[in-house]
Write a structure and sequence with these properties.
By secondary structure, the chain is an all-alpha fold. The chain has 12 helices and no strands.
């Protein structure tokens, strides 16, 4: 009499999480993702129905289950509320740096123009840099590739065209000032854009990042997740609670996820 092997979705998913931990440990990488894996393993009872749903929807696409669990580890490790707040702070700091650069570069451009005028009218010279090519050469003396492939060609051009063909140092710096002043802030990847779109940080930022990751890894974008893949509100709530290690007073439920999805469908307010 042949025995029928019973499929255990929880065991399959938890083995994948343990394999992720093992790989990270062996390669000494992504300890924060391993921490998230530990949370999911520790809250095994809460995750049981999630694993069953995941297996039911993804087991026909062998790489998809591992891919999705990896996305969860990454989203919870790098797009949890604390990390997202750090990203928002970095964005604000970048905007502030651009404002400072614009202001100080404009001041420097004025000083350089005034110095040039004094060189021409005062009867004195300070033997300082005045040609943009000289500045490039001086700044690139430790760049082997510049010295090997660019320096001679630049020197030939400088010798061919006199000073009136080149921008002055003050004009050069004015461009940097205008560039910083008109800088437009934008996220460099879809997950950062999704997680930091809201004015105020919240737990919803994690789900925004996770949804963006799912979209990026869907079959429509040549990823490993099947088209139309979607978890139930209850499964997503449990997944967020466990991955973010939310306590009893901070838990989200399926009603929270339903409202979140409706807000996302209606667009930002």
């Amino acid at each position: 009499m042949s025995s029928v092997q019973t499929v255990n979705p929880q065991q399959i998913c938890e083995d994948l999480l343990r394999e992720e931990k093992r790989y990270n440990s062996e390669h000494r990488i992504l300890p924060s993702e391993s921490t998230v894996a530990d949370r999911l393993l520790h809250r095994s009872i809460e995750m049981k129905p999630v694993y069953e749903e995941l297996y039911g929807k993804l087991h026909m696409h062998p790489p998809a289950l591992q891919c999705f669990l990896g996305l969860v580890l990454s989203a919870a490790a790098f797009w949890n509320p604390e990390k997202i707040q750090e990203a928002r702070t970095a964005r604000d700091d970048l905007a502030n740096k651009n404002r400072q650069i614009a202001r100080k570069a404009a001041e420097l451009a004025t000083l350089l123009e005034q110095r040039s005028e004094l060189h021409n009218t005062s009867g004195f010279s300070s033997d300082t840099q005045y040609h943009c090519c000289s500045v490039i050469e001086a700044a690139s003396q430790h760049n082997y590739l510049f010295r090997s492939y660019v320096q001679d060609r630049l020197a030939a051009l400088r010798g061919q065209y006199d000073l009136k063909y080149w921008p002055s140092l003050s004009e050069f710096i004015e461009v940097l000032a205008m560039d910083a002043e008109s800088a437009v802030m934008s996220a460099t990847d879809p997950l950062t854009a999704a997680a930091t779109a809201a004015v105020r940080p919240s737990r919803a930022d994690f789900f925004k990042a996770l949804f963006a990751a799912i979209d990026e890894n869907s079959a429509g974008n040549y990823g490993q997740l099947p088209r139309g893949f979607k978890l139930t509100d209850r499964a997503l709530a449990s997944l967020g609670n466990c991955a973010l290690d939310l306590g009893p007073d901070d838990l989200v439920d399926d009603a929270y996820i339903k409202r979140f999805r409706q807000r996302e469908q209606n667009g930002p307010k």
